[in-house]
Write a structure and sequence with these properties.
By secondary structure, the protein is of the alpha+beta class. The protein has 27 helices and 18 strands.
Length: about 700
């Protein structure tokens, strides 16, 4: 019997809609819920999650679909559901509360608070009933009811303590500067925590955290330290070989539950694909190893195939679960493979990808082995080719053909839920990744996809007053954008300009940067708030500095300010960038590896950094030679401007006035290179241009 729909049925969020038929009387976040709580003197039960969160699904099945628990929740609480991806401002604040109160956090996030939004209890997943010393929902509800009615003084004490801690967090300020020592210290800490056998950092679970690798690539370029590059390459190869990578359909799963990257949590997130493809692309630039190019292309092709809407925007994620079982879509019995491929080919695939009759997949919840298999490699394909005495290229083609057959079979299964909301911030990351790959791999398809997504955001996710909106779904854009939306989209627009040299994208980047400075900048302490000054007033106004699953908005905004300062010649943007880095310097020095993207941006500020202006005709062969040289090499700390000399009034001179005097000498494409504000003589030779960029 299907329950009657609750208020969530009118929402757009896929996560909220998943709970629309729970017997819990859910409210969306808003005044109606809090007014009801105040009127009836009830505590608020806030539950935060996202559509592809496995343990959110488990808690729903165990508790929120349980009529007895739902009745008690409806009696004791006013219950509110929030999609963490739709309202990251709410999620950020109450996740900090949970971390303050319990020492950890995660999703599902559970917070009990007053009708004035002041929290006094927090946790994550709660089982249906108490087990192994963890309180369950059946016991939690009456316990909260008891302290709410009988211990208001204790609640008030807790609230005061939390508010005091949040107040300290909101007043981040620093009087110190970052310097090269912070880069060295971060590298040393990464080296100490590096897993030499399997790549990655720390223990389990293991997350990719691509911006750690972006930092290490730049540290390698700066220092020449071979171990920095080795850490990146080992991690990228081990992840690609592991079960965290979808060998049949491509794309990376969220994280690995084991040390070897074998057993994944199966959800796939857009931001992981964006950032990981960026790392593989840059590692190809740094090494010339085509293996990294292939992997980057596979990731991007997965996104264009499975996570791209007809309007050009990119969907958020694919779930871990299908038919209520985590990973069911992705795992295989050996008999299935034999049936579809024939015994000979199935045995070859099985020996290469560790497929076993008894299965190689362990269910995380029970720790028990199943007869299901995850595809993963324990050694490179080159070694299998040697064992089989066949050329590597022949083996790769054979495997690709067989995996494609399995992909077509897998398509007939019940697919995991696709979270089809479009988020400006995650789309910004994807645009940046596609634009970078487009110019490095000379791929027009990637460039077109990035341009289409950028145009979609400026057309459909921008309000009438020019400000960005955060979320689009079912023809509706809503929610004022957050810092990450502006910072990540500006990043994407800058990358897109450097790929297409369409000044329209630079105009948009500058416009959104001005809005960000006007409405997010902290005039008192420096840095950017997560929410704009016209946004909803929550219990405090947060400033994010840590680079978590995705980089912080402040980290990316620092890089944007530095690049836009060089592009426009406006030194006030560079001054803002310095104030930003000073504001968070003490936080960075306390935990360098938790600020890897901030340090990546600071690496640009520290220099050497370059401005390159190429003057010529865009489609001319000599121009292509200059751009090919610039794009194939790993030179991250540069901006590249193009001045078309066949136009009477090139638009780039409106934005970058200093390019007015740049000419094509002797009617040949000419490069102008400046390093750390000092310019070299122009050159018609692309190789001399590269010498200037790599000269110590």
């Amino acid at each position: 019997m299907i329950n009657k729909a609750n208020r969530l049925i009118h929402e757009k969020s896929p996560y909220l809609l998943q709970h629309a038929y729970n017997p819990v009387d859910w409210f969306p976040w808003g005044a109606v819920a809090f007014e009801k709580a105040k009127r009836e003197n009830k505590p608020v039960f806030l539950s935060i999650g996202y559509s592809t969160c496995h343990w959110c699904h488990v808690m729903e099945r165990e508790s929120f679909e349980d009529k007895e628990i739902a009745e008690k929740m409806n009696e004791i609480f006013v219950s509110i559901k929030v999609d963490s991806e739709e309202r990251p401002d709410i999620d950020n604040i109450y996740m900090k509360v949970c971390q303050l109160m319990t020492g950890s956090g995660g999703w599902p996030l559970t917070v009990i608070m007053t009708p004035d939004k002041e929290p006094f209890f927090a946790g994550t997943y709660f089982p249906n009933a108490s087990r192994f010393g963890k309180i369950g929902m059946r016991e939690l509800i009456p316990w909260i009811d008891n302290i709410w009615s009988k211990q208001p003084d204790e609640i008030e004490k807790t609230i005061i303590q939390i508010n005091s801690a949040l107040e300290k967090m909101s007043n981040i300020s620093s009087k110190t500067n970052l310097n090269e020592a912070a880069l060295n210290e971060a590298y040393e800490k990464f080296a100490r925590s590096f897993d030499e056998n399997y790549g990655g950092f720390g223990g389990t679970p293991k997350f990719p955290i691509p911006h750690n690798l972006l930092f290490l690539l730049r540290y390698y370029l700066r220092s020449g330290e071979p171990e920095a590059l080795s850490m990146v390459e080992t991690t990228l190869k081990k992840m690609r070989n592991g079960g965290i990578y979808d060998h049949i359909g491509s794309g990376f799963h969220r994280y690995s539950t084991d040390q070897k990257w074998v057993l994944p949590h199966f959800e796939k997130m857009l931001y992981d694909q964006a950032l990981l493809s960026m790392v593989y692309t840059e590692t190809y630039q740094a090494t010339g190893n085509k293996e990294y190019k292939t992997i980057a292309e596979d990731i991007l092709d997965y996104v264009l195939r499975d996570l791209t809407s007809t309007n050009g925007g990119f969907f958020s994620a694919e779930d871990a679960d299908s038919e209520g079982i985590e990973g069911k879509f992705y795992v295989w019995k050996k008999d299935e493979i034999i049936f579809h491929l024939g015994r000979e080919d199935a045995e070859m695939i099985s020996s290469i990808f560790n497929i076993k009759e008894e299965g190689n997949f362990f269910e995380e919840a029970s720790g028990e082995k199943t007869s299901e298999n995850i595809f993963y490699l324990e050694k490179p394909l080159s070694e299998f080719a040697e064992d089989l005495s066949i050329p590597l290229s022949s083996l790769e083609k054979k495997i690709k053909d067989l995996l494609n057959k399995l992909f077509e079979i897998r398509k007939q299964r019940v697919h995991p839920l696709k979270d089809d909301k479009i988020l400006t911030d995650w789309n910004g990351l994807m645009i940046a990744a596609l634009a970078k790959a487009a110019r490095v791999f000379d791929c027009e398809r990637y460039s077109n996809a990035a341009q289409k997504a950028a145009n979609f955001i400026t057309s459909y996710m921008t309000a009438d007053d020019g400000k960005l909106l955060h979320r689009f779904r079912e023809k509706e854009a809503s929610q004022s954008a957050f810092l990450d939306d502006y910072a990540f989209f500006i990043w994407g627009l800058i990358e897109l300009y450097e790929t297409t040299f369409n000044v329209h994208f630079l105009d948009n980047a500058i416009q959104f940067n001005e809005i960000m400075l006007e409405h997010f900048w902290d005039e008192k302490n420096g840095g950017f708030f997560f929410t704009p000054d016209f946004g909803e007033k929550l219990i405090f106004r947060d400033k994010e500095t840590y680079d978590g699953a995705i980089p912080s908005g402040n980290s990316v905004a620092l890089l944007n300010l530095l690049k836009l300062a060089k592009i426009t010649g406006k030194t006030e943007l560079e001054e803002k960038a310095e104030l930003l880095s000073i504001a968070f310097a003490e936080n960075v020095k306390k935990a360098e590896t938790a600020h890897s993207m901030m340090l990546t941006s600071f690496d640009f500020a520290l220099g050497p950094s370059f401005e390159v202006v190429v003057a010529g005709i865009q489609d001319a062969e000599d121009t292509k030679a200059f751009l090919k040289n610039l794009n194939l090499k790993f030179i991250p700390n540069k901006i590249v401007l193009f001045k078309p000399t066949n136009e009477k009034f090139p638009e780039i001179t409106r934005i970058a006035e200093f390019t007015k005097e740049h000419k094509a000498i002797e009617n040949k494409t000419t490069a102008y290179v400046c390093k750390n504000h000092v310019c070299s003589l122009p050159t018609n030779d692309p190789l001399k241009m590269m010498e200037m960029l790599f000269k110590k």
